[in-house]
Amino acid sequence: MNKQSIQIALAYMSVVIGGGFASGQEVLQFFTHFGVIGVAGTVISALLFAFIGMQIARMSSKMQADSHKQVLSRLFGAKAGLGVDLVLSFFLFGVGVVMLAGSGSTLSQQFGLPPLAGAILLTVLAVLTLCLNVKRIIHLISVVMPFLLTMVLLITAYSIFNYNAPLETLEAVATSNTDKASSNWFLSALLYASFNIAVGFPMLAVIGGLTKQPKAAAIGGVVGGLGLGALILTLNVGLFANINQLQGVELPTLALAGRIAPWLSVLMSLSLICMIYSTAVGMFFAFSARFARPETTRFKLVSLVSILIGLGLSQVGFTKLVGTVYPLLGYVGLALILAIAFSWIRGRSADAAAQKAELEASL
């Protein structure tokens, strides 16, 4: 695996591991609340992450794509690709709204502030970043991601080895919860992979296009996808092992940190705010850039209006938004997965036909 493969793998993982993943709420609704069978769901998601990541990276590398729109056009055709792009853009806005709600929940759970206060704080920061072009803030915040990921893994590992309830109790508590992404664990696993692929698709397509070696790009997609699967599995097991103490909690990883030490909970909450901020800015930037050129007056106006609308919508609540926006985005992602799978099958059929023709010509 060369340097380009490693870069693609890390980029793939970083774009998917946002504030929603780090909070634990995503994994809780898509996997943990299904009980032990949720572990099988994480394996299915991991395999999908690896396969689809490989196909997107390799396809964009072959095309030398400089935009995800080119890949969408190849997969769906010009008109349908434009439609998918528009739908995807609006769902990215939805993820930004979820992040605003997540900010409110973080400050509310950790410091007892009203949820609206945290949402307003993130709104102000996002508006300043996008409208005043404060680029250094994004660069500084990006440094937090590896630190936050390490914290989540350490907290999860500690929690796995310090659970205090029998398996039967954990299973009963987990499966009795109604906050689930869908009614079926298998569909939930498909939706989790597909919505994350939909979110990560634009970035992965561009990064793959920068690589002139399709094989290296494909390896990066596979490694990144399997890495994501390992992280999801670890977090899911940690949440399940402590599910009896996480009922009604909007930010499970923050609650687990508080059980270890109060200072760790404060540190975790600040890191989580940074990650949520980074994800929110990325989503609102992608949405606004779809309708206006970045750094123009129109772009700043679109950013301001969209974020303010998002602030109002965020008051629905973090848990409810995760359970609504993400599964819907997952269905959009499923269309993307099916198109990629069809393209792969068609490509293999064409290769097989070409090899057969070569063989017959040589005889």
Automatic annotation (TrEMBL):
Protein keywords: Membrane, Transmembrane, Transmembrane helix
Metal-binding as UniProt keyword: no
Keyword Transmembrane helix tagged: yes
Transmembrane segments: 34-54, 75-101, 113-133, 140-161, 185-207, 219-243, 263-287, 299-318, 324-345
Name by which UniProt lists this protein: Membrane protein YkvI
Protein species of origin: Serpens gallinarum
